[in-house]
Amino acid sequence: MTTDNAIDLRGLRKVYRPAGGGEAKTALHGLDLTIPKGSIFGLLGPNGAGKSTTINILAGLVNKTAGQVSIWGFDQDVNPRQSRASIGVVPQELNIDPFLSPGAALEVQAGLYAVPKSERRTMEILAAVGLADKAEAYARTLSGGMRRRLLIAKALVHRPPVLILDEPTAGVDIELRQMLWSYVRELNAAGTTIILTTHYLEEAEEMCDRIGIIAEGRLVASDEKSTLLAQMDAKTLVITPEGEAALPDAPEGIKVDRREDGALAFTYARSKVSAEAVLDLARENGIRIKDVATEEAHLEDVFVQLTTRS
Ligand SMILES: Nc1ncnc2c1ncn2[C@@H]1O[C@H](COP(=O)(O)OP(=O)(O)OP(=O)(O)O)[C@@H](O)[C@H]1O
User: Fold this and answer.
1) How far is the CA of 111 from the centre of ligand 1 (A)?
2) What's 233-309's CATH class?
3) Which of 110, 140, 144 is nearest to 124 (CA)?
């Protein structure tokens, strides 16, 4: 089957039903999501939005309640083996087997994916993640950063065309982060589609070419980064005027509202309008500035905005 999408999710639903018969929890409400081949896709969302659920369904660790999951053109229900073989997942937790050296861990993983001995490339992968000299090391001697790299190596043994990294830089120092990202970029340049979840907007901004936002189990946005960031860079400059001030006619690109306390709120796109232009507008309209404050848009605000709009 050929398709331009690495991932295709249609009407994906997940309802968690506690074993004891407690209240059922709907984590995904019919999610539709496509991720084009070759992209570095950032899956963002507030806590509890459903990111882990989505990734765990892709990884085959959680069973969906309803919907279609297609990975690299393979329907998870029709071709479970091929769809699983098309994806590698780097989990959030730094769990590694304490009794296996990195080399042995990769061999075991290759065995799990039925990679024939002649096609294994344990040393090549270890070298790629900077662990060549640790191939025979005791697992317990590996630092946190080395463990993270070992987990990436494990996710790559079966050469999956899609690699998912779940919160890869949580608790990771800057140096490792840089190394991780440059390696992820290399993989992507060599053709691997990358999907990552992160809580850090700056990280998504730096790394991803496309971004999907999930809120409360629904996709509220999925677009090219540049398109989304244009919405995300709304900034508000709040001017408290000296005495009474009329609401000025705002030029295109600036929106003016009067707050309850009499302050004037100028909302604009930071990438297009300068704060200077906003202050000029106030002065031109004879507004004498008693106090001024700025309010940045947070990803959280964008979620709210997008959720209420949809
Ligand atoms: N095993 C489970 N049983 C019951 N409810 C669950 C289970 N796993 C997740 N949930 C619930 O499903 C919803 C989505 O959770 P999920 O972990 O997918 O969100 P998330 O976006 O990954 O959040 P975070 O950023 O905190 O990891 C949450 O309300 C969560 O409490």
Assistant:
1) 31
2) alpha beta
3) 110
Integer Cα distance of 37 and 254 in angstroms: 38
Q: Is 60 in the pocket of ligand 1 (CB under 6 A)?
A: no
How deeply is 179 buried, as exposed, middle or buried, from its count of CB atoms within 10 A (0-12, 13-18, 19+)?
Answer: middle
Secondary structure in 3-state letters for 216-257 = CCEEEEEEEHHHHHHHHCEEEEEEEECCCCCCCCCCCCEEEE
Ligand 1 atom closest to the CA of 52, numbered from 1:
22
Q: State the distance from the centre of ligand 1 to the C-alpha of 70, rounded, in angstroms.
A: 22
Find the farthest-apart pair of alpha carbons in the chain and give their distance in angstroms, rounded: 81
Nearest CA to ligand 1 atom 16: 50
What does the pLDDT look like over 258-295, one tens digit per residue?
999 999 999 888 878 999 999 999 999 999 999 999 88
Unique residue bearing structure tokens 């090391």? 137
Query: How far apart are the C-alpha atoms of 269 and 176, rounded to whole Å?
Result: 34
Q: What pLDDT is stored for residue 309 in this prediction?
A: 47
Which has the minimum average pLDDT: 37-41, 58-62, 176-180, 188-192? 176-180
Q: Domain locations in the chain?
A: 37-60+85-226, 233-309
The CATH topology of domain 37-60+85-226 is: Rossmann fold (3.40.50)
* CB-count exposure of residue 208 (10 Å: 0-12, 13-18, 19+): buried
Q: How far apart are CA 304 and CA 13, in angstroms?
A: 22
pTM, rounded to two decimals: 0.78
Residue 247 has, within 13 A of its CA and on its CB side, a CA count of: 9
Q: Which of 23, 25, 218 to mutate to test ligand 1, by most ligand atoms within 8 A of the CB atom?
A: 25
